[in-house]
Amino acid sequence: MKFSKKLIIWYLEHQRNMPWRQTKDPYSIWLSEIILQQTRVSQGLPYYLAFKTAFPTVFELAAATEEEVLKLWQGLGYYSRARNLHYTAQYIVRELNGVFPKTYDQLLKLKGVGDYTASAIASICYNEVVPVIDGNVYRVLSRVFGLDTPINSSPALKEYKSLASQLIDVSRPATFNQAMMEFGAIQCKPQSPDCTICPFADRCFALQHAKVSELPVKLKKTKIKKRYFNYFVVRLPDNTLLIQQRKNVGIWEGLYEFPLIESNKLMEPEALEKEEAFSHLVRNKSFSLTRYKEAPIVHKLSHQHLYTRFYVLDICEAPNLKVDQSLIPVATIRDYPVPVLIGNFIESFF
């Protein structure tokens, strides 16, 4: 039996019931694919439902503020996805009258839409015969056909896409693509897949050569960078807080945080008080500085670990505000989109 036919038979029996599988609306498919990038379905589903409720169509999403979008995205990570989502929604409404492009090549021109997302939308919504390649698909093809080209190397996409193009069911590209992704997600899992019930057990290269745990091959990850964050929760007598918005600073762009001093190692309060940025906060006025916890909080991102300490800084007079800083009532702190690191602190402290 052909690979595609066997795969689709498996899919029709085992597919999970997901809301984006009940439609061919390009807005819904696009939204789900952006949310599910580098995100598990179990984590992404509540966000998808929340976005669909808040922004039922691309017009409502385009009309929202970036801050509203980031707040709804809070906790999902990789915030550039949210900013690109908002930008693209505005572009589609303003430049394309709310109509999504209908081909793979046209979809690729949208900000935040790469090969995978363009392939998914084109095949699912418009039945274009173009295969999707994501982490799940890489894993299935690598194991079944014995491909050992590292999946995070430059040649990988072309090689895997060429093979997938030969395998795709041209009469049912949408079903085939969804089947490939679903098969990798729940059957050909990264760790300890149950190969005894796999429909491809009789032909799987990895199973026959005892390489299931070795495929797919990945190049060694980039070395993890350590960063040291010292946050100051600045409180004033009128029950206001000082917050600032991160702009053009790498991670968490557009999100809010407390005033920050980043150092090259863990620092004690006495050393931090000598920093110029700290002097700007207190303005030679009396202050009280209390460390929230002795041990630093370690917040792990994909390529960096943040060693973070929070300090409660009570001052009697507001500092000179920088362009990106604001004084807000304490009661409104939860209204602002913040990184998970800050959000967790807010929930435990306020």
From TrEMBL:
InterPro entries from the xrefs? A/G_AdeGlyc_MutY, DNA_glycosylase, HhH-GPD_domain, HhH_base_excis_C, HhH_motif, MIG/MutY, MutY_C, NUDIX_hydrolase-like_dom_sf
* A Pfam family it matches: NUDIX_4
EC number(s) reported in the record: 3.2.2.31
Q: How is the cofactor bound?
A: Binds 1 [4Fe-4S] cluster.
* Signal is among the record's keywords: no
Q: Supply one GO BP term.
A: mismatch repair
- UniProt keyword Phosphoprotein present: no
Q: Which Gene3D superfamilies match?
A: Helix-hairpin-Helix base-excision DNA repair enzymes (C-terminal), Hypothetical protein, domain 2, Nucleoside Triphosphate Pyrophosphohydrolase
Q: Reaction catalysed by this chain?
A: Hydrolyzes free adenine bases from 7,8-dihydro-8-oxoguanine:adenine mismatched double-stranded DNA, leaving an apurinic site
What is its cofactor?
Answer: [4Fe-4S] cluster
| Role noted for this protein | Adenine glycosylase active on G-A mispairs. MutY also corrects error-prone DNA synthesis past GO lesions which are due to the oxidatively damaged form of guanine: 7,8-dihydro-8-oxoguanine (8-oxo-dGTP).
Know the name of this protein? Adenine DNA glycosylase
Q: Organism classification, top ranks?
A: Bacteria, Pseudomonadati, Bacteroidota, Flavobacteriia, Flavobacteriales
